[in-house]
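Comment thread on ticket #2218

A.B. wrote:
> Attaching the input chain for the structure job we discussed in standup.
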Amino acid sequence: MSKNPSFTNLGDLVRRDLDLTRTALIDLGGEKAPREFSHGDLDAAAAGVARALSKRGFARGSRIAILSANRFEYLAAYYGIMRAGLVAVPVNFKFPRKVIHYILGDCDAKLVFCDAGRRADCPVGLPVVEFGSACPPSGPTGHLPHEGEGEAISFESFLDRGPFETVVPKPDDPAMFLYTSGSSGTPKGVILSHHSHIWVAQTRLGTQDLSRHRYLIAAPLYHMNALALSKLAAVGHSTIVLLPQFSAREYIEAIERYRCTMLTAVPPMIAMMLREADLVAKTDLSSVEIVRMGSAPVSQALMSAIKRTFPKAQVVNAYGTTEAGPVVFGPHPDGLQQPEMSVGFKHKLVELRLADGDDRAATQGVLEMKCPAVMSGYHNRPDLKPPFAADGFYITGDVFRRDENGFHYFVGRSDDMFVSGGENIYPADVERMLERHPGIAQAAVVPVDDDIKGTKPVAFVIPKPGQQPAEGEIKQFALANAPAYQHPRSVWLVDDLPLASTNKLDRAALKAQAAERLASAAFKS
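C.D. wrote:
> Ran it. Output below, let me know if you need it in another format.
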């Protein structure tokens, strides 16, 4: 492979200096799966999107939304929008319709690309280009409906195939808006520049030859986890095996069928996969060389289970944020082995510090960072205090501790923390402790109101197959392995845990469930 290439537009990451006939994407979504596309196919489709958008006269910097499950056309539209000098806005289609409409209005979207399943969630009056054959083609001119017409044209009809000279953006021009989940309020549009995520892709590639790899992606492309890996695959001239959405059994089957070498997911996805023990046992998973997890905490129990399932694979406990990207931690400069539960040593191109109040040299505190990937700000949110320190460090809101060798460990979200009887409790801390119990596969801890303590912890627990630990046994385990104030006052065994639209644990839903269970128990007594 040639040296790390240079780019100016984030939509232009396809490597034209390499073999464009190599497979770029095996699409397991769409209407006729599987579909296989080369790097040349992706490049041509992105150019066709850019030409079509440019001919329709959208002003430079206009926002164009994408509302769809994962598929080839999603990435073609994403790259094409940016090539045309416009701003791509991937939208979380699992949001309620009113939230989707809010996002499309907040970013002032001029057009939305969508699939058939999401067509009904597009506001009336917003021009729509629909992926797939379900949408009847438009006339021979590929007419795009004007605002107020309320109709859609097909993606193929919209495309204007041919060469396109990519727009060269200014250094800080926005390339995309990524809206955060909004679990704690109104979703925020994170503004990310071309420069910021070109730096991410090039830094992750470095001098590696990644061309032989096949990355299995089932996390949604509206989320940083999947989107950043897709761009790494483009600059690395690798192959993506793309599932439309996560399904544990389909995920397992795809590993064997397509000989995937790298898995990337949030930890709950891997946990759900490993619970399909019958299918895992009879499936050849030997092709997997790397399992990379990020976006949520990893427990010791899950880490051990992954290593048993993929004994030859490197297991990477990673960390990143929407606001500052996935390049945060890396290997130790002295070659020290990374502890299993650590996310690594400070990356050599990133400035990091831990802040405990005014102490910004703490060994435990909120992570603050500075690097080229940090966002430009939040779109249209003057009501929010920018999450930056006076000297420009981005304040992540995530609490870490650092050991004597400089390795960092995730403790919990500062906004997940709650106070019980004057003691600070981080749910992730308690969950990792509970998951050391031999009968527990996964745990989730949330606060509930308490007249004396203010709040107190309760736990939802998924038992390991064949295990049924009693509530009292779990409480005694917690009392023996952690401070007494951390032990869950109620424990409920469950078959699964609710996930938010980013496949992270839905703590808001669990809080509501806990309140209902306690109210029901009080009523019965």
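A.B. wrote:
> Thanks. Noting for the ticket: Residues 204 and 373 are 12 Å apart (CA to CA).
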